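dumping this here before i forget
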Amino acid sequence: SNEAFSTPLPQHPTSIVPFLSAITEVTFTAWRQQCLWRGRCDSGGLLSFAISPSAHGASLWNHLARLAIADLANILPTSVKHLHVEADFSALDPADFACVFDALPELSSLRLNGEGDLRFVLRQLAPGSPSPQASVCPRLRTLSIGGVGCRWSHDDEFLGDALAVLQARAGQDLRLDRLEVDIMYESADVYQEAVRRYVPLFGELVHGV
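structure:
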């Protein structure tokens, strides 16, 4: 099946679901056999879509998860200011995140957590030169990465990539106000070394780390 969230919707979903245009906060889950999209507006209204492919095995689940994240660019209104993605990122295509980020010019906070290597997703936040993505998420001020269940096999590579993305954004005057990184380390010594090496560097690019 190639059906995902937007399949039953018209080219402009707000024509039949006007509430979509008022959504400012979105949570998307594609993790542990769950595929759920929840949107909330400032007035407290809630809209949700769900796909439950667990009975059809992992291969179909991975296929639907990829379709669903790509679908966000078709469903989400440009008014979205807060996006939380909880996913097994190893099953998703980073290029789809580039489309999502391009579609959200008002996004001010982004939270990414789950499992898998997030480096390739983070790279989609780096402005290109020259590129239509030169001002990707220009209003982004808070970035939160990590969370329960996260495991990083290449912490230095991940932090190095995150640093490079923030440097690129700062160079385009797209500096963050706050960065939150939650990584599980094998020992306190490794954690302390990471803090010693990276916190001062991040501190030069972000107002709050």
